[in-house]
Amino acid sequence: MIAISPRPVGRNWITISFASTLYLCPILDLLLAEVPDYWQAELRLGLQEALVNAAKHGNKLDPGKTVGVRFSIVQNQYWWVISDEGSGFKAPCSCNLYTDDCDSLLAEEVADNSGLPHVEQECGRGLFILYQIFDRVEWNSEGTELRLCKELARPYRLPRLR
Q: How confident is the model over 106-127, as pLDDT tens digits?
């Protein structure tokens, strides 16, 4: 079951909640309905990774637990705030990766492959994908809420997927 709360008058956020599941097609369709077509494939991949992490790792696929998503568009920024009812986890980086310091640090790690998950490693690839797709990836201190932002008016990068 999917519960949708429309935007209240004067507010920009839509809220969607659903029981922990890996059947995410209708949820992704709702979350991407207002995103331009040429960005949908890339953002669909990133949102799917984030929702799978919340349902599978956060809620342990417990159908009694829900995943909540708030979505908003503010100017050229598309925001998704994903929360689960799990015990949380420690985010891989305590900084916001949109700052210059972290961009150069991440670039160095990617250049020498230390920031990349090992090909045979089962965990970590989804987080790596999130950091590649979204301009901002931020967790709350408990590790149960993930804030993702994509700025679509950035002129220097086209979508990685089409």
A: 444 544 455 555 555 666 788 8
**What is d(CA 104, CA 54) in angstroms, rounded to the nearest whole number?**
28
3 — pLDDT class (breaks 50, 70, 90): confident
Backbone angles phi, psi at 132, to 5 degrees: -80, -35
CA 132 and chain centroid, separation: 11
- The reported pTM is 0.77
Long-range contacts of 74-79 (CB under 8 A, 24+ apart): 74/12, 75/153, 76/151, 76/152, 76/153, 77/149, 77/150, 77/151, 77/152, 78/34, 78/35, 78/43, 78/149, 78/150, 78/151, 78/152, 79/147, 79/148, 79/149
